[in-house]
Amino acid sequence: MFIKLKSMKSIKFLFILFMVILISAPICLSILPRIEAFSNLTPGNYPDSENSYLLSGYYPENNDGSLGVTGSSEMYNEYYKNVNKNSKYLANPNDGTCSRPEFCGPFYKDKKVVIPNQPPIIPFSSPQTRVNFYGSHPLVCPDDLSQ
User: Fold this and answer.
1) What gap in Å lies between CA 70 and CA 52, rounded to an integer?
2) Other beta carbons less than 10 A from residue 122's beta carbon
3) Is 94 exposed, middle or buried (0-12, 13-18, 19+ CB in 10 A)?
4) CA-to-CA distance for 95 and 87, rounded, in angstroms?
């Protein structure tokens, strides 16, 4: 009898808890501000977004009005083999994976790619602190921190 009474109390408690959640959820959701899913996206400026390409400030535009390659095999031969997919510095955003082959190549010209120099690689016998292949200089803190 004691076990039945205890289980009845827990079932009653769970039922009351469920009802409180069921009643309070719509009230809480109506109080919270409603945010539309794509409201934080910034749209393009009207005349500029109609007359120029998406990456026009980053890559030079090709405005000759022609389409790119004509078929999938040509797209593969022209772009896909020549572009390193892991490349950080691309001369052209076309990487040979266009959804229609006609759109590979006609929008942007190649830009001059400037790759920054890497720091010198230090040997294993160097007294410097190593971070991967490069040396790291220790941070020197001032003695007087009140400055």
Assistant:
1) 23
2) 16
3) buried
4) 10
DSSP assignment of 32-69, as one string? SPP--TTTTPPPPPHHHHHHS-TTTTTS-B--S-----
In the block, which residue shows the tokens 């950080």? 88
- Reported as a single tens digit per residue, the pLDDT across 4-48 is 656 778 888 889 999 999 998 888 877 777 777 676 676 667 777
- Residues 86-113 have pLDDT tens digits of 577 778 777 667 777 777 777 888 888 8
Give the whole-angstrom CA distance, residue 49 versus residue 126: 54
Q: Does pTM surpass 0.70?
A: no
